[in-house]
Amino acid sequence: MQTMARPLIWVGSSLEDLKSFPEEVRGVMGYALHQAQTGGKHPDAKPLTGFKGAGVLEVVEDFDGDTFRAVYTVKLKGVVYVLHAFQKKSRKGIKTPKQDIDLVKLRLKAAEALHAARKHAEKEDSE
User: Name one Pfam family in it (predicted).
Assistant: First the structure.
């Protein structure tokens, strides 16, 4: 039995940012997002530190000496929202830079608002 794929919604510039990644990295990220859409979890997908529970995940891929990350949430029922995609610039440590965490928080709030609006519109359409 095939699982229905949840819609994938890109927040902000996340799609354009991911498209700028090297092809090999895009392949890994795309596969991880597809797994999220079908209810699975990529082996490299980990909860993003600073967000409660496993609702906000990141996939980290190293390529040619650089580190690329895609952050998404599965906590909003029935939809996968891609919140951020970026190349980590810092050479020190594995910690996600504060400006990227702040952007993820901002985009998560935008995704929550969009999700609420979508649910409201679906409810009105069914009446």
Answer: Gp49
Domain ranges of the chain: 8-126
Q: Is the pTM higher than 0.85?
A: yes
CATH class (in words) of the domain with range 8-126: alpha beta
* Rounded distance between C-alpha atoms, residue 103 and residue 105, angstroms: 5
User: Strand locations in 24-88, DSSP E?
Assistant: 45-47, 56-63, 66-73, 80-88
Give 79's pLDDT tier (boundaries 50, 70, 90): very high
Alpha-helical (H) ranges within 2-97 are 14-19, 23-37
